[in-house]
From TrEMBL:
This is F-box domain-containing protein. PANTHER family: MITOCHONDRIAL ATP SYNTHASE COUPLING FACTOR B. The keyword Nucleus does not apply. It comes from Cardiocondyla obscurior. Residues 40-50 have a biased composition (Polar residues). Residues 182-228 form the F-box domain. The keyword Ribosomal protein does not apply. Keywords: Ubl conjugation pathway. One of its GO terms (cellular component) is cytoplasm. Residues 12-36 have a biased composition (Basic and acidic residues). Residues 1-51 are annotated as: Disordered. InterPro entries: F-box-like_dom_sf, F-box_dom, F-box_LRR-repeat, Leu-rich_rpt_Cys-con_subtyp, LRR_dom_sf. The lineage of its organism: Eukaryota, Metazoa, Ecdysozoa, Arthropoda, Hexapoda. It comes from the Eukaryota.
Length: 509
């Protein structure tokens, strides 16, 4: 066998094929016939050419390209163009090998019984000169075709997925406007809308925050929350933590019920650096624990007027009150648990001008320290209800400590005597004096008090009959007026039936 020969495994049919003619081929040139199953489908899909050795002068190169046949380099020998016969016998007992040399001579090999060797082993060992078996090649190309047909759809799907992922983008559907027609408010500026929202009550103002983000931002403006009235309301846990950060300056919580805890965890108010903007706070007769009250007052440093009437306080509350250096008015009427430590904290308020500590059940020691160390800035004072603790000496100390008092209420102080009348004459600027139910002072002493130069009002309820009152009024001519005010108004936020203002400031819009 020559070195340029090509080996093929041929499985003949039961009927032998006629021998090929030699006249159509020469040693210098030859043509290989390839069936459609080996050349057309597989090579067109894999874009690979079937090479062969020989002279291609008789065939044009374009025809070879269309057929999928390529030229081999000189000296290279390949059997990749071999084929398998289409028709195979169902049963055969031997395998015939046909060797094609350069002269296309056919040589038959000996018949090999099937039982002596396995067909697969025979195909492996029967190799041609190029080192490949024609059967192995046919099996290889058959598997390659099956794999290619399976991989091609997968490859196309992956390519489409890659293209889709490259072109993927988020699309936000345009919202359909809830209101048809022109929105007039979009034309208006924030300042104009703010002026409009000022006319709304607080309940409607809260609802307007749900309209849109712009309205929510405008409705939270501090100008709309300067004053707030929550009197007689029931406030849940942490409600004040949402109210104070809005910049409330005037807050009425009279007779309100405030649950503990006052501030929820995570609230802005609980930050150490937070300071409330409250200046006027009314907690008269509010139901609130001392701990919650102390926590609320600890966040207030700019209070000017404060009312805690009938509240239960402790040392922390009084300590928090003393931190308000600009506090001017303080109402502690009927407050409980005020002791010596609380008094020492309260006397630190140097700007205090009006103080009401009526019916606070102060003991003798507290009353003595209070009258001796009271801030000199006090001009209006109410210490009524000290039935057994306020004495003539205390009034004397008070006249020396605060000689500029304008209004003084000493009602229901049963220990006061005629000596107190002499001490009261030292208040040269006193305009309103109340000595109701001070039974130890004789009635004749009131005629002397009525002639004080600056006195305008004298209240002596429960001491004189109507005839005596008329005689006293006749001796005083027009001034002072007798028994004009039944209740004291010292440091109290509201007087009479007015409930829409505290200390003369509106709490409702």
């Amino acid at each position: 066998m020559s070195s340029g020969g090509v080996a093929q495994h041929v499985r003949p049919h039961q009927e032998s094929r006629p021998p090929r003619s030699r006249e159509s081929s020469s040693p210098e040139s030859k043509r290989l016939r390839l069936d459609d199953g080996c050349n057309v489908n597989e090579t067109s899909q894999s874009n690979s050419k079937w090479p062969y050795s020989g002279d291609a002068s008789l065939i044009e190169s374009e025809i070879l390209d269309d057929m999928g046949v390529g030229m081999l380099k000189s000296g290279a020998i390949s059997c990749e163009g071999t084929k398998r016969l289409e028709d195979e016998p169902e049963v055969f007992g031997y395998q015939q090998e046909i060797y094609l040399n350069s002269t296309l001579e056919v040589t038959n090999t000996n018949r090999i019984p099937q039982g002596s060797y396995d067909m697969d082993d025979l195909a492996v060992h029967a190799e041609n000169e190029s080192g490949y078996s024609s059967r192995m090649e046919a099996d290889y190309f058959g598997e390659l075709k099956e794999n290619f047909t399976k991989e091609k759809p997968n490859a196309s799907i992956e390519k489409k997925e890659q293209t889709c992922s490259d072109q993927f983008c988020l699309f936000r559907r345009k919202r359909k406007p809830s209101v048809e027609g022109e929105d007039k408010f979009n034309v208006l500026s924030d300042e104009i809308i703010l002026m409009i929202l000022k006319w709304l009550p607080k309940k409607c103002l809260v609802r307007s925050m749900l309209v849109c983000k712009r309205w929510c931002q405008i409705a939270r403006d501090e100008a709309l929350w300067t004053r707030l009235d929550l009197g007689s309301k029931v406030l849940g846990e942490g409600t004040l933590g949402y109210i104070l950060p809005r910049g409330v300056q005037i807050l009425r919580l009279a007779q309100a019920e405030i649950a503990d805890s006052v501030f929820c965890e995570g609230s802005e108010v609980l930050m150490e650096s937070y300071i409330s903007k409250l200046q006027y706070l009314d907690l008269s007769m509010a139901v609130m624990s001392p701990v919650g009250l102390a926590m609320l007052l600890s966040k207030c440093k700019y209070l000017k007027k404060l009312s805690l009437e009938k509240c239960v306080v402790n040392r922390d509350c009084c300590k928090a009150i003393s931190q308000n250096k600009e506090l001017e008015v303080l109402n502690l009427t009927m407050c409980e648990n005020i002791d010596m430590e609380c008094i020492m904290d309260l006397i630190k308020l140097k700007c205090l001008t009006a103080l009401n500590m009526a019916w606070c059940s102060l003991d003798n020691d507290c009353m003595t320290v209070f009258c001796k160390m009271l801030p000199k800035s006090i001009t209006r004072l109410n210490i009524a209800g000290c039935r057994k603790t306020l004495t003539d000496e205390n009034v004397k100390d008070l006249s020396k400590r605060c000689p500029d008092i304008i209004e003084l209420d000493l009602s229901d102080c049963a220990m006061l005597t005629m000596n107190t009348v002499h001490n009261l004459l030292n208040f040269s600027k006193l305009e309103h004096l109340s000595l109701s139910r001070c039974y130890s002072i004789p009635q004749s002493a009131y005629i002397r008090l009525a002639h004080m130069p600056c006195l305008l009002y004298l209240d002596v309820f429960g001491l004189m009959s109507d005839s005596v009152l008329k005689l006293l009024q006749a001796t005083c001519y027009r001034e002072p007026e007798i028994n004009k005010y039944l209740y004291s108004s010292v440091a109290r936020p509201t007087v009479g039936i007015r409930r829409t203002s505290i200390w003369g400031l509106r709490v409702r819009d």
